[in-house]
């Protein structure tokens, strides 16, 4: 699923776009008009909390902890097998780096379920100064219909895309 964010100054033009989108197959719940009266709270309720910095720190912390656990287990095993201490230190450092790279690769490829190509704070600022936001939620198959409707409205500016699963 995708969410497209458009900003315009004329609420009537955005309402016209909403009607046109409904005529080409979009359902009414897929189209949201956000203005100052609906405000930033509505935007927060339909878009995810922007926690990328905290989420990244937490995810990276887990990666480091998993790498340290794997490295300590290798070190302890090597100690009990009476491996030379210098070799054991080098092996542990290499194992830590390998596990760190491996767990980072896994988390980036498997856990990255959504991408944000919009700045939620700038959209909120635009709402505060009196501009209006049109939010269109759609599936991949509706790209052509959205493009055909939006091509007739050059005054409306696309400000972001949010993909999620």
Low-confidence stretches: 49-57, 110-114
H-E order: EHEHHHEHEHE
Strand content: 15-25%
CATH topology of the largest domain: Alpha-Beta Plaits
Spatial arrangement of strands, main beta sheet: 2-4-1-5-3
State the share of residues found in helices, binned by percent.
Answer: 55-70%
- Overall domain count: 2
Structural class: alpha+beta
Oligomer: single chain
Number of E strands: 5
User: Nearest-angstrom radius of gyration?
Assistant: 24 Å
Shape: elongated
The CATH architecture category of the largest domain equals: 2-Layer Sandwich
Summarize this structure as a short list of keywords or feature phrases.
Alpha-Beta Plaits, 56% helix, single chain, alpha+beta, 165 residues, five-stranded antiparallel beta sheet
What is the topology?
Blueprint: E1 2-8, H1 11-23, E2 31-34, H2 39-46, H3 52-80, H4 85-110, E3 115-117, H5 120-128, E4 132-138, H6 143-150, E5 157-163
Antiparallel strand pairs: 1-4, 1-5, 2-4, 3-5
Helix pairs in contact: 3-4
Task: Describe the overall structure.
The protein is α+β, with helices and mostly antiparallel strands and 165 residues long. It folds into 2 domains: 2-48 and 114-163, Alpha-Beta Plaits; 52-110. It is built from 6 helices and 5 strands; from the N terminus they run βαβαααβαβαβ. Strands 2-4-1-5-3 form a 5-stranded antiparallel β-sheet, with helices on both faces.
């Amino acid at each position: 699923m995708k969410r497209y964010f458009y900003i315009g100054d004329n609420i009537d033009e955005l309402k016209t776009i909403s009607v046109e989108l409904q005529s080409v197959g979009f359902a009414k719940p897929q189209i949201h008009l956000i203005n100052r009266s609906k405000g930033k709270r509505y935007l927060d309720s339909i878009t995810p909390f922007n926690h990328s910095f905290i989420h990244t720190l937490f995810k990276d912390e887990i990666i480091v902890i998993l790498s340290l656990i794997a490295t300590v287990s290798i070190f302890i095993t090597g100690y009990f097998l009476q491996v030379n201490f210098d070799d054991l230190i080098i092996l542990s450092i290499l194992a830590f780096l390998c596990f760190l790279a491996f767990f980072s690769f896994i988390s980036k490829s498997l856990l990255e379920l959504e991408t944000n190509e919009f700045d939620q704070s700038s959209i909120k600022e635009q709402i505060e100064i009196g501009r209006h936001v049109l939010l269109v939620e759609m599936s991949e198959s509706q790209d052509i219909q959205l493009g055909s409707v939006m091509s007739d409205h050059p005054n409306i500016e696309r400000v972001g895309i949010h993909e999620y699963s």
